[in-house]
Amino acid sequence: MKLDRRTFIKGASAGTAGCVFATLPGSIAALGNSLIKGSEQSVASICEMCSTRCPITARVVNGKNVSIIGNPKAKAFGGAVCARGGAGHSQLYDNQRIVKPLKRVGERGEGKWAEIEWDEAYSIVAENLNRLKKQYGPESVAFSSKSGSLSSHFFHLSKAYGTPNTFTHASTCPAAYIVAAKAMLGGRVRRDLSHSKYVINFGHNLYEGINMAETRGMMEAQMDKGAKLVVFEPRFSIVADKADEWYAIKPGTDITVALAICHVLIEDNLYDKAFVAQYVEGFDEFANEVKAYTPEWAEAICDVPAEDIRRISHEYAAAAPHALVDFGHRATFTTEEFELRRAIYAANILMGNIERKGGLFFAKKAGAYNKFAGDKVAPTLQKPGVKNMPKIDAKRIDMVDEQYSMLWSSGGIYQTILDATLDAHPYQLRGWVMNRTNPMQTMTDRARIEQTMKKLDFIVSCDIYISESAAYADIILPESTYLERDEEVSDKSGKNPAYYIRQRVVETIGDTKPSWLIWKELADQMELGEYFPWENMQTLQLFQVNKDLDLLNKIKREGWVSYGTPLMLREPSVLNTFVSEHPNAKPLDDDGTYASQLSFKTPSGKIELSSPKVEQMSAGRGVIKYREVKMKKADELFFIQGKVAVHTNAGTQNVPMLANLMSDNAVWIHPVTAGALNIATGDKIRIFNDTGSEEGHALVTPGIRPDTVFAYMGCGSKNKELARASGKGVHCGNLLPHVISPVTGMNLHTAGVKIAKL
Ligand SMILES: Nc1nc2c(c(=O)[nH]1)N[C@H]1C(S)=C(S)[C@@H](COP(=O)(O)OP(=O)(O)OC[C@H]3O[C@@H](n4cnc5c(=O)[nH]c(N)nc54)[C@H](O)[C@@H]3O)O[C@H]1N2
Ligand SMILES: Nc1nc2c(c(=O)[nH]1)N[C@H]1C(S)=C(S)[C@@H](COP(=O)(O)OP(=O)(O)OC[C@H]3O[C@@H](n4cnc5c(=O)[nH]c(N)nc54)[C@H](O)[C@@H]3O)O[C@H]1N2
Ligand code: SF4
Ligand SMILES: [Mo]
Fold it and tell me: Quick check: is 411 in a domain?
């Protein structure tokens, strides 16, 4: 059989695409249950092998978790998990996990540990944090955690303690597209990929940087509905491979294409004038600015042919509004991500695809949904609040500049911890409490992080492994993995409201605890117990559902409960169904939509294509503009990174099943570049620049631009405690300079490097 692109993608959805999707393999399913004796049950829960948090069903035989599949009730996730989700039990039973609190007994980073009891761990942490608070004020301690299901408990402790210095991973990942959406649309939007007829993608590698619902959505659009996908990406990623068109764009120049698309949409009169008139502020200023951004201008900077940009713009406009320009996920390609992500939103806004099928939409949680439905279709959840939390007066270490004021609620500028510790800028930081975060590998400038860790007075890490960052802590608190934890009900609403819940799948292994309990018990020791009045997780769950035990049990039993039908305020076909399902629904406008009800949480209540507020925050940025960025010296190569389907960031390198699949990251080099350096595939190489130097090996491939090299991120851990990962591959963070981008505070994951054969 001849395998063309489409049949391959089709095959992939059936679970045959190698390692990408792990549905229950046919051969095991065929064995049926008959071979497995003893007790057996299926528990509905939530995956946490990455922050997508897909709904799962975990099979437990004789108390042991033997397999994990997707929860079939959650249709958008396709009832499947990815390779990492299928490897959850390998992490759970890994004998290199930490299962007892650890105290450092050597120098920081030396790798000498003593196992201690929880009581001792809590009292050391409480004593040190209270000492720092008393001597230097609570603001002298930073709290950082990857945002996640239990991070609210962690940040609750930081608030009770009184520090304003709380950070998520935002400035290393999504903040730029979130801040840009806030500035223009008043908040985050989602993409309706599965109904899109035409998708323009700037390096959003959904077939490796997996988000099950979106990855499935993209696959459905491509293979079932014949959608066209155009990818701009410096290397031949999997999504580039599955695209109808791939352009090997020069790193960091995507904005020229995005602006040139806007130019063509406006100059060729293709944009949705009625939409712009009704919903958009600042169009004229923007139109005036993009006059100069012709496809020919773009081509000279980004290497994408002008005639293709013109044709693609026309094709996109013809498919609109059921078409979108994807705003991406990891937004750390350049220091001008704010402009890029705004230019991408602009290309969507001009085509009026907001709240349309195949375009962009806002999530509809229970409260909003019920208002439109005119009935209490979905239950709303209560949020436990604690009265009299301490007032925090101190300024954040990253908030010395007005231009970052849209960032704070999105997680702050994580890397300012380095400046505050090493340079007392804007004041001296002395302690760092880390939870589920591995900045040594996932921030930039590893050498500076090491200095920071060595200088700090006190460091705590809560992790499931001795990560490279935990390796520098004074105390490590071992969290139970997600398969051993009960958690609160989570809101996972999309076009309609949906809830799900994490439930313990197996008994806890060793002496670990869920972090909600760790922070509560630590608070008790710190004499902050009054701020944690709930007794246990069940108290919290019951509070959330307003003591509706039936509801809680239903969510636990089914693992995924959704309400109503999709709601998109400007899509007549969707609204037809909506009003027929809900007899008390708000009356539709004359055009059969809720278009008159759509407003935006911006100062003007409209979409701000150009924004006086942004101008005020950062002079000269009110209107979206091209700003040249230099990311490398003339004699260097661009160094870029990306995700691999079988690992999550730098967090799974030691998980046995996944380490077996891949434990090293070869450096991709174009044959012409490799030839000039006399390098062949497999050769040992040095990759270096002013920031650092790494050794690795080469993969010579035409699937990358000659001026660019690439490595999958997350390898090259330098701590010996991660035995399966240690010293294997290139440590990307060691080659990336310390940068704080304007407005978004992003750090930068592109750098200039040189390569030499060893
Ligand atoms: N060079 C480079 N750096 C990057 C990127 C890049 O492409 N290149 N990508 C960036 C992106 S997009 C992101 S999101 C960040 C992510 O960076 P991080 O937020 O640091 O995330 P992870 O690498 O996933 O690792 C987080 C830590 O959580 C631990 N962990 C896993 N499960 C649990 C748990 O249940 N409880 C606890 N307490 N700990 C747990 C893991 O052992 C690991 O040490 O990295 C960024 N950094
Ligand atoms: N399997 C797997 N899935 C994941 C994750 C994971 O670690 N593993 N992590 C999750 C997380 S935290 C995130 S943020 C998402 C990330 O999802 P994506 O944003 O898709 O992540 P990346 O793979 O980091 O980057 C995408 C692509 O950008 C390309 N690139 C680099 N520089 C440029 C540039 O200047 N222009 C263009 N056009 N492309 C460029 C890279 O080659 C890479 O293929 O994935 C999520 N899903
Ligand atoms: S995308 Fe994969 S690893 Fe991430 S939550 Fe879903 S199944 Fe788990
Ligand atoms: Mo991310």
Answer: yes
Dump strand ranges (E) for 581-725: 607-608, 637-642, 667-669, 684-688, 693-700, 708-712
| Tens of pLDDT, residues 2-29 | 333 333 233 333 333 333 323 333 333 3
The burial of 278, by beta-carbon neighbours within 10 Å (0-12 exposed, 13-18 middle, 19 or more buried), is given as middle
Ligand 2 atom closest to Cα of residue 750? 32
Section 221-243 average pLDDT = 97
Point out the ligand 3 atom lying closest to the alpha carbon of residue 83: 2
Same domain, 119 and 78: no
Q: Spell out the SS3 assignment of 320-346.
A: CCCEEEECCCCCCCCCCHHHHHHHHHH
Cα separation, 746 vs 339, whole angstroms: 12
Per-residue model confidence as pLDDT tens digits over 349-377: 999 999 999 999 999 999 999 999 999 99
Task: Tokens 């035989």: give the residue.
Answer: 61
Quick one: pLDDT at residue 37?
A: 56
| CA 206 to ligand 4 center in whole angstroms | 12
Residue 481 Cα to ligand 4 midpoint, Å, equals 20
Give the 3-state secondary structure of residue 134: helix
Pick the last residue of a domain from 361, 381, 409.
Answer: 361
Atom of ligand 1 nearest to the CA of 642: 7
Average pLDDT, the chain: 94
Q: Measured from the CB, is residue 210 less than 6 Å from ligand 3? A: yes
Residue 294 pLDDT more than 50? yes
Ligand 1 centroid to Cα of residue 517, in Å, is 22
Query: To test the ligand 1 pocket, which listed residue (48, 415, 417, 463) has its Cβ within 8 A of the most ligand atoms?
Result: 463
Alpha-carbon distance of 41 to 29, in angstroms, equals 16
At 331, which CATH number? Answer: 3.40.228.10
Whole-number Å distance, alpha carbon 173 to ligand 4 midpoint, is: 4
**CATH code where residue 677 lies:** 2.40.40.20
Ligand nearest to the CA of 168: 1
In this predicted model, what pLDDT tens digit does every residue of 400-446 receive, in sequence order? 888 999 998 779 999 999 999 999 999 999 999 999 999 999 999 99
Ligand nearest to the CA of residue 210, numbered in listed order: 2
Cβ(211) – ligand 2 distance below 6 Å: yes
Domain that holds residue 113: 102-172+396-479+514-532
pLDDT value at 229 more than 60 = yes
Q: Which of 45, 48, 50 to mutate to test the pocket of ligand 3 (most atoms within 8 A of CB)?
A: 50
Instruction: Give the number of whichever ligand sits closest to the CA of residue 172.
Output: 1
pTM of the model: 0.95
What is the DSSP code (8-state) at residue 34? T
How much is the average pLDDT of 641-653?
A: 97
Q: Are residues 110 and 84 in the same domain?
A: no
Indicate whether 556 belongs to any domain: no
705 C-beta closer than 6 A to ligand 2: no
Ligand 1: which atom is nearest the Cα of residue 713? 8
Largest CA distance in the chain: 73
- The answer on 149 and 27 residing in a single domain is no
Domain membership flag for residue 706:
yes
pLDDT at position 131 over 80 = yes
| Minimum-distance ligand 2 atom for the alpha carbon of 205 | 20
Q: How many CB atoms are closer than 10 A to CB 277?
A: 9
Closest CA to 318 of 200, 224, 218: 200
Pocket test for ligand 1, best of 204, 444, 480, 649 (most atoms within 8 A of CB): 649
Atom of ligand 3 nearest to the CA of 84: 3
**pLDDT tens column, 708-746:** 999 999 999 999 999 999 999 999 999 999 999 999 999
- Distance CA(758)–CA(755), nearest Å, equals 9
Note the pLDDT of residue 147.
87
